[in-house]
Amino acid sequence: MSGRDSPGPSGRESQGNRRPKLSTQAPVGVPLTRRASQVLETIRVSLTNLFSRLALHPDQSASKVIPDLSFDGFLSHWKSNGFKKIVTMVGAGISTSAGIPDFRTPGSGLYDNLQKYNLPHPTDIFELDYFIENPKPFYALAKELYPGNFRPTPVHYFIRLLNEKNLLVRHYTQNIDSLERLAGLPEEKMVEAHGTFHTNHCLECGLEFSKEWMKEKIFSDTIPLCDACNGIVKPDIVFFGEGMPDKFYDMPAEDFKNCDLLIVMGTSLEVYPFASLVGHAEPNCLRVLINRTSIDKFGSPTNKRDINFIGDCDDAVWKMAEALGWSDELKALIKKEGSKFEKPKVRTSDNKHNDDKKPKTSREVPQSNQIEKKS
Ligand code: OAD
């Protein structure tokens, strides 16, 4: 990322003004304001953990939260003891099996594949200052990755299942692909920490525009300009240099209180303040990382509550479902919901003639694209 700090969008600045803005871990040369907010957040979380270890949970510093901190040990503990309050935290890795690239996997990640946009630096595509100067690359990418073209994965449905079993306290996502919504997770159960494409605002006057209005602009390759003041209109996804939605700051204190399991999936935990959420888990809360690559923050040899599953997150949720006896339920849910995404039959000039002679049954009448309807 460029390391520039920006004043943020004028129309929505007040809500995030005193709060840390979205950024990656501070590289050398980042302005003090951004670096300072990250350092302060890290100190705050470390002190909170230290105090709670010393004062509130004296026993937890001495023993492991569960006896066997392997993934199998975690599964057998879940099966025999259960968990009551689960928080999930996810990133782009949970959507790669849907065909959406993540950001940082070398080679396939989005940031290795943006050459055609001639950006000074790949992350500039999500940098507010850059966007204001040149919004074209972002809108070209938005057209390519627009929510509605992809289906949820087993991970998304597993999270929905957790909710249906009244185990999910909250789902924190960095993703802007809307696949959680498409999988049927209720909005109130989610914190879409990096925003969504569902609402849009003018960066100058703050006027709101609908999702349909924005979609029409994106798909007609038109830079969306405000009807009132001609300023640039931007989807409410959070760019580097912007504040996070209020929910992100308001929910964690309550959500993590007595939370006994935190599942972190498909994220490099490179981006703050999202990554700092893992520090909200109390010392007796088990933290499970499910990711293709290991992350330093998790699973030190002396840790008491971290579990690593280094591998594919779809595989991990199938293993969890199997251990808990939920496999059939998960399969049935995926099948039932998957049928909503079946494409209408494509009518070619070859088959049109014959088709026109046949009486139409309800199954043959092309359905409207239900992905669009739900999103
Ligand atoms: P990253 O690309 O940084 O990390 C994705 C992680 O998921 C990587 O560690 C991969 O190894 C892992 N992964 C990929 N596919 C997987 C799979 N099938 N199973 C398990 N693990 C898999 O993406 P995020 O952590 O989401 O922000 O990135 C955070 C933020 O950085 C994004 O929200 C975005 C980006 O800049 C903005 O654009 C504002």
From TrEMBL:
Gene3D superfamilies: SIR2/SIRT2 'Small Domain (3.30.1600.10), TPP-binding domain (3.40.50.1220). Pfam families: SIR2 (PF02146). NAD(+) binds at residues 92-96, 102-104, 174-177, 267-268, 313. Signal peptide: none annotated. Residues 1-30, 341-375 are annotated as: Disordered. GO terms for cellular component: nucleus. InterPro entries: DHS-like_NAD/FAD-binding_dom, NAD-dep_sirtuin_deacylases, Sirtuin, Sirtuin_cat_small_dom_sf, Sirtuin_class_I, Ssirtuin_cat_dom. The keyword Transferase applies. GO terms for molecular function: histone deacetylase activity, NAD-dependent; NAD+ binding; NAD-dependent protein demyristoylase activity; NAD-dependent protein depalmitoylase activity; zinc ion binding. Zn(2+) binds at residues 202, 205, 226, 229. Its EC number is 2.3.1.286. It comes from the Eukaryota. Residues 364-375 have a biased composition (Polar residues). The active site is at residue 194. Binds 1 zinc ion per subunit. SUPFAM superfamilies: DHS-like NAD/FAD-binding domain (SSF52467). Residues 341-363 have a biased composition (Basic and acidic residues). It catalyses: N(6)-tetradecanoyl-L-lysyl-[protein] + NAD(+) + H2O = 2''-O-tetradecanoyl-ADP-D-ribose + nicotinamide + L-lysyl-[protein]; N(6)-hexadecanoyl-L-lysyl-[protein] + NAD(+) + H2O = 2''-O-hexadecanoyl-ADP-D-ribose + nicotinamide + L-lysyl-[protein]; N(6)-acetyl-L-lysyl-[protein] + NAD(+) + H2O = 2''-O-acetyl-ADP-D-ribose + nicotinamide + L-lysyl-[protein]. Its cofactor is Zn(2+). Residues 64-327 form the Deacetylase sirtuin-type domain. Keywords: Metal-binding, NAD, Transferase, Zinc. Belongs to the sirtuin family. Class I subfamily. PANTHER family: NAD-DEPENDENT PROTEIN DEACETYLASE SIRTUIN-2, NAD-DEPENDENT PROTEIN DEACYLASE SIRTUIN-5, MITOCHONDRIAL-RELATED. This is NAD-dependent protein deacetylase.
